[in-house]
Amino acid sequence: MSARKSVVIVGSGVSALAAAWELTGAANGPVDTTVRVEVIEGADRVGGAVQRTTFAGREIDCGADGFLARRPEAVQLVRELGLDGQLEAISASGAWIFIRRRLRAVPAGVALGVPTSAASLKATKGLSPRARAHAWRDEHFPRSMQVASDATIGEIVRTKLGNEIAYQLVEPMIGGIQAGRIDDLSAASVFPALLQAARGGGSLMKALRAQGSVVPGPSGPRSEGPVFYTLRFGVGSLCEQLEVALRARGVIFTTSTPVTALRRSKTGFYRWEVDTANATTAANAVLVCTPPTVTAQLLGALEPALGALGDIASASAAMVTLCVKRTQVKLPPTGTGVLVPLGTPFKESDSLMVTAVTFLDRKWPHLANDETVLLRAHVGRSDDERFMALSDDELTRRVVSELALIFSTFPEPLESLVVRWPHSLPQYRVGHGDVVTAARKAAARLGVTLAGMAYDGVGIPASIGSGRTAARGVQEILDAL
Ligand SMILES: Cc1cc2nc3c(=O)[nH]c(=O)nc-3n(C[C@H](O)[C@H](O)[C@H](O)COP(=O)(O)OP(=O)(O)OC[C@H]3O[C@@H](n4cnc5c(N)ncnc54)[C@H](O)[C@@H]3O)c2cc1C
Predict the structure, then answer these.
(1) Architecture of domain 6-50+235-312+430-480 in this structure
(2) Closest to 298 measured CA to CA, from 312, 314, 310
(3) Would you kindly state where each structural domain of the chain is located, as residue ranges?
(4) Which of 376, 453, 466, 468 to mutate to test the pocket of ligand 1 (most atoms within 8 A of CB)?
(5) Any idea what DSSP says for residue 157?
(6) Equal CATH topology for 107-211 and 314-426
(7) Which residues contact 146 (CB under 8 A, 6 or more apart)?
C-alpha cells in the first residue's frame, strides 16, 4: 500500500484556508484519496488579515470587513460552507469626499473613483472650473496618449482628466483600497479596465462608461446583485468556520510557529522539508501563502526570481474604530463613508492622516444600534507611516481631532480600538505582473506553489481564488509523483 501524500501550507490567511478546502475536496470532500494537509501559521490564530473581535458589545472585523459580491469566489466559498444564510448585503450606498474643507458627494457612476461623465461632476461641488473643463474636453476632444503594456493609474488619469480629478477623486478611492499612490500603482495589475480604456485612444470616460460596472483586478466572471457582502457575524467568521470545517476533515493546524526555512530533500518519498523552531516536517508538496517578503526569505536562496518577491513593497495601515453616542454625532445623512484626498491641510503645516472614514453600522445592519454609532477611521499609506510613531492613545486622540475637522464637530468616543496592519498591503507597481510571472516560473521549476494577495489581486475574493487555483496546481504535482 502506498503512503498517503502530504502537503504543508505555510501561512493561514484566507488564501491558505481556501487552498486547504480545495485540496480536501472542496464541496465534495473529503474523499478516501484526500491528502494529508498541515497548515503552519506564525501568528497565534488563523485568518491573517481576516480577523474579528468583540467591540462595544458587537462582533466587528479587525481588518477586511466586506467583500465584493460581483466577483464569484468569496460567495461561492460561503455557499460551499453552507453559510449562505449569514450573507448580509451592504445596506448603504454613495459616499462623501472631503474637498476644500467640506463634505461633497462622490459623483454618481464613478468607476473606482474615475468619473464616467462630465455631467456627473456637476453635483460634486468643490471642484474647480478647470477640472470640469478637463472632463468636458475628454468627452469632446480627448487627449491622445500612447499607452504601452502598462502605465501608472496616475499617468493615465492625469493625462486624460487632469491633476485635480486624479488627486481629489481617483487617488482617494483607488489609493484608499490599496493604501498606495496612483502614481505608483500599475493600471495593468490594479485597474485593467482603465488601461484598456486608455489604449482605446478616445474618451476615457466614455470607454469606461461602455464597460459598465468595474471591479478591481483581472477580468473574470461577474454577477449582478449587491455590490458588497459581509457575514452576519463578521467576515472574520468565514476563516473561523473554515478552520472548523478543515479540522473536521483532518487538516492539522499548527499556530504560533513561524516557518523558518524550506528545503528540497534530496532523497526519498518526500520532496520537501519545512523547518520551524521546534521541528522539521517532511512533505510531498509545499504551498507558500505568506506575505511576499517572507516568501522571498524562505525561497530566495533557491531561485533568484523568488528572492525578487522581497522587493514588492507593502504598505502599513491602521484602523481606529470608535463607538460614539448617536445623539452627539452629526454625520452626513446617507452614504458608506468619507474619502480624504492626500495632503488635505490639518492645522498650520500638517496634513490629515485619516485617509477614509467608514460608517460601519450603516454599511452592515447587524452592527446597528439605537444608542450608539460605530465608525472606523483608516490611516496609513505606502508613503505615510506617521501613525507608526504614535501610541494607540495618541493615534486615537489625533484621529478624533481630525474627525472634528471633517464633520465640523466630533464627540469624545465611548470606546475605541486601534488595530495595526504593518507591511500588510502589497503594492502592485508597474512591472508587478512581470515579477509575479517570473516568480511563478521559478516556483514551478522548484516544484513549489505560491498563493496570496501579492499575486492575483488584493481582496478576499481574489485571495480565495488565488488559493484555490494554487491548490489545483499542488494536486497536479502530487498526481505526477
Ligand atoms: C487592513 C486591511 C483591510 C482590508 N480590507 C479588505 C476588505 O474590506 N475587503 C476585501 O475584500 N479585502 C480587504 N483586504 C484584503 C484582504 O484582507 C486580503 O486580500 C486577504 O485577506 C489576504 O489573504 P492572504 O492569505 O493572501 O494573506 P494574509 O491574510 O496576509 O495571510 C498571510 C499569513 O501568513 C502568515 N505568516 C507570515 N509569515 C509566516 C511564517 N514565516 N510562517 C508561517 N506563517 C507566516 C501570517 O501570519 C498570515 O496569517 C484588507 C487587507 C488589509 C490588510
Answers:
(1) 3-Layer(bba) Sandwich (3.50)
(2) 310
(3) 6-50+235-312+430-480, 107-211, 314-426
(4) 453
(5) H
(6) no
(7) none
Q: Does domain 314-426 have CATH number 3.90.660.20?
A: yes
* Residue 320, beta-bridge partner list: 377, 418
CA 424 to ligand 1 centroid distance, Å: 7
Q: Which residues line ligand 1 (CB under 6 A)?
A: 10-16, 40-43, 48-50, 63-67, 258-259, 289-291, 294, 317, 421, 424-425, 452-453, 458-460, 463
Fold of 107-211: protoporphyrinogen ix oxidase, domain 3 (1.10.3110)
Q: How far is CA 274 from the centre of its chain?
A: 28
**Residue-level pLDDT, tens digit, the chain, 481 residues:** 467 899 999 999 999 999 999 999 999 988 878 899 999 999 999 999 999 999 999 999 999 999 999 899 999 999 999 999 999 999 998 999 999 999 999 988 889 899 999 998 987 889 999 999 999 999 999 999 999 899 999 999 999 999 999 999 999 999 888 899 999 999 999 999 999 999 999 999 999 999 875 544 444 444 456 789 999 999 999 999 999 999 999 999 999 999 999 999 877 789 999 999 999 999 999 999 999 999 999 999 999 999 999 999 999 999 999 999 999 999 999 999 999 999 999 988 899 999 999 999 999 999 999 999 999 999 999 999 999 999 999 999 999 999 999 999 999 999 999 999 999 999 999 999 999 999 999 999 999 999 999 999 999 999 999 999 999 999 999 998 8
Q: Are 359 and 331 contacting, i.e. CB atoms less than 8 angstroms apart?
A: yes
In angstroms, rounded to a whole number, what is the distance separating the alpha carbons of residues 295 and 297? 5
Contacts of 278 (CB under 8 A, 6+ apart): 257
CA distance 154 to 140: 21
> Which ligand 1 atom lies nearest to the CA of residue 317?
1
Q: Whose CA is nearest to atom 7 of ligand 1?
A: 64
User: Which triple of cell numbers denotes residue 475?
Assistant: 494536486
